[in-house]
Amino acid sequence: MKRKVFSLAIIVVSAASVAYAAYAQTLTINGTGTATGNWDIMIQSITPTGQVGATDQAGTPSFTATSATFDVEFAYPGSASSYQVVIRNNGNINARLSSITDLTAINAAAPTYITYGITGVAVNDTLAPGATTTATITTGWDSAATTNPNGASKPVTINFNYVQDT
C-alpha cells in the first residue's frame, strides 16, 4: 500500500513539474502602437457685457491660451464690470476643466472692496472637440465701501486649466 501511495505521489509531482515548466516560459510580445491627437484648448474671445463707472486699463482685458487678464479702473463705490470669456476646444480630444484660479485669496487681497467672481463654468465641466463654453467674469467696487480714493483697481489673471477627459 505504501508503495502505491509513493508511486502515485511521484506521478503527481512529476505531472505538476511538467505543467509548471510548460507555463513558466518567458512570453515576449512585440508590436507597435500609434496614438494621435490634437490638444488645442484656447480662449477664443473676451467681450465686455456691461460697465458702470468702470473702464478697462490699456491692454486689458487680454488673453493667451487659457489665461485671461483683467485690470479695471473703478470711479466710485458701486462701479462694476462684466465680461463673457469664450473658451473653445479646437482639438480632437475631450477636455475637462481641472481647476480655475481660486478667487478667494485674490478677493481677500488689498483692496478688499474690489472683488471678482466667475460663473458659467465649474471644475470638472467637460468640453467636447469643436465645442465652446462661456465663463462670465464679474468685478466690482463694493457699494458699501467707505474708502473713496480717486479711482481704484485690482488687476487679476484667471487661469482655466484643462486636462484630457478620460
Question: Could you estimate the helical fraction of the residues in percent?
Answer: 10-25%
| Derived structural class | alpha+beta
**Residue share in β-strands:** 35-45%
Name of the CATH architecture: Sandwich
User: What is the strand tally?
Assistant: 12
Order of helices and strands: HEEEEEEEHEEEEE
Mean pLDDT: 88
Descriptive report:
The strands form three sheets. The chain has a five-stranded antiparallel beta sheet, with no helix packed on it. The protein has a four-stranded antiparallel beta sheet with strand order 1-6-10-8. The chain has a three-stranded antiparallel beta sheet with strand order 2-5-11, with no helix packed on it. The chain has 166 residues and is of the alpha+beta class. The chain has a single domain (41-164), classed as Sandwich (Jelly Rolls). The chain has two helices and twelve strands; from the N terminus they run αβββββββαβββββ. It is elongated and about 110 Å long. Helices cover 17% and strands 42% of the residues.
